[in-house]
Amino acid sequence: MNAFTALLRKDLVLHFSNRRAVLMSIVAPILIAAFFGAMFGGDSKGPAQIPIAITDLDQSALSRRIVANLAADPALALTEMSATQALAQVNAGKLRAAITLPPGFGKQAAGALFGGPGKPEVALHYDPSQAMVLPMVRGLLAQHVMQPVSEAAFSSQSPVVQDLRAQVQASSGLANERRSALLAMFDSIARAQQPPAHAASASASANVNVNAAPGLGIPFSTREVAATSQLGTQYNSYAHSFAGMGVQFILLMGVDMGVGLLLTRRMGLWQRLRAAPLSRGQLLGSRIASCALIALIVFGVVYAVAIGVFGVRVAGSVAGFIAVLAAFSLFTASFGLMIAALGRTPETTRGLAILATLLLVMLGGAWVPSFVFPPWLQTVSAWTPTHWAVTGLDAMTWRALPLAAALLPVAALLGFTALFATVALARFRWEE
C-alpha cells in the first residue's frame, strides 16, 4: 500500500509541477464554453443585426414608408444604395441580401392585395453561403409591406377601394349575393373611417379582378436570386467547408512542427547544430521555410481532391488563390514556432496549441459562420488570421472575385506572420 501511495503521489507531483500545462487544461474548456455560450444566446444584447441593402426604384409614399419600416426593424441593419452597388456587396459577402422595389410598386401592390393580377415583382438577391438568412429576410419584408399596403388599400379615400366599388356596381356578371357582400364591405370601411367614403368614377383601365376568390393575399411576388448566379457561378458548399477544415488541420500541422522542435531540443540536437557556423536566424528560419513549404504542398493536395472529387472550382483569380494559400502556409509556420517558443516544453505547448488553434478556428468562422456571432464577437473575428484565410479562399473560389479581393487577406496573413515570427525569434530558448 505504501508503494502504491508513493507511485500515486509521484504522478500527481509530476503532473502539477508543470504549472503551464495544468493552467492550459483548465483555461481551454472555460474559454471554449464561453465562446459557444456567447454565440448561442449568452449575449444580453441579442443576436447580430442582419446587414441588407434596399433599392427603392418606385419612390412613392408607400415604398418610402416600407423602407422606413425595414430600417426601424431591430433585426436588420438596412442601407439604401443602388442596385449595382448592393449586388456587388452581396457578392463580396459584406451584405446578406439586397432588396429591389420596382417602379410602380406602390400603385400595383394595393390592387394586388385582393388577389387581382399584376403583382409587382420584388427582386431579392441573397448570399448563397448564408441561405438560412433568406427566410427571415423574406418574412420581415412581407411583414413590413403588408401593414402599409393594407392601410392604403382599406382607406376610404384610397383610389383602389373607389375603383373596386365602381367595378362591383357596374359588373353584369357578378352574382347579386356576391355584389351585395362586396358593397357591404366597402360601406363598413366607409363607416369605420372618417370622413365617409365618396363614390368615385370607375376606371376602365383598372387591373382588378372582382370575380377573384375572397380573401387577402401577399400583394407582391419575390424573385429570389443567388448573388453568385449573376457571375455565372453556383454556390458549392464544399468550397467553404474545405477552406475551413483545411485551415484547421494545416494549423495543427504547424503545431506538430513546433512540438517536434522542442523534442529535438530536449534530445540535445540543437546544441550540436549551434556548434556549426549557423546563426540563430538561419536555424529557426529554415524551420519556418520547411514548414511553410510542407503546408503549401498539403493544402494544395487537399484542394486538388476538392476540385477533382467534390466539384470545387477556383472561379475567381487563380493567382489570388495561390497567393492566399502561400500566405497562410507562411503564417502556419510562424504560428507553430511561436507556440513552441511560448510553451517552452512539449507538454505545455500541446495544451497551449489546442487552446490557440480551436479559438482561432472558431473565431475565424471555420466551424460556424461568423454572421451568427453577436456583434462584439464579429468584431473580434475580424482581427483573427483564420478569418482572413477563410475569407480569401472563399473569395477566390465560389465567390468568383478578382485578384484585388485577395490583396487584403494576403496582407493581413503576412502581417500576422511577421508578428508571430518576431515573437518566436525573441522568446525561443535553446535549452529547456
Write structural notes for this entry.
The protein has 432 residues and is α/β, with parallel strands linked by helices. The chain is 63% helix and 7% strand. The chain has helices spanning 2-17, 19-42, 61-72, 83-91, 105-112, 133-153, 159-170, 176-192, 237-266, 269-274, 280-310, 318-343, 346-363, 375-381, 385-396, 404-427, and strands at residues 50-56, 76-80, 97-101, 121-126, 221-226. The chain has a 5-stranded mixed beta sheet with strand order 2-1-3-4-5, with helices on both faces. Strand 1, helix 3 and strand 2 form a beta-alpha-beta unit. The chain starts with a helix and ends in a 5-residue tail after the last helix.
Instruction: Name the helix and strand elements from N-terminus to C-terminus, one letter apiece.
Output: HHEHEHEHEHHHEHHHHHHHH
Q: Helices and strands: which structural class?
A: alpha/beta
Instruction: Give the overall silhouette.
Output: elongated
Q: Give average pLDDT, whole number.
A: 77
Low-confidence stretches: 194-216
Largest sheet: 5 strands, mixed
The amount of helix comes to: 55-70%
How big a fraction of the residues is strand? 5-15%
- Helix count? 16
- The separation of the N and C termini measures 35 Å
State the total count of DSSP E strands. Answer: 5
Strand order of the largest sheet: 2-1-3-4-5
Radius of gyration: 32 Å
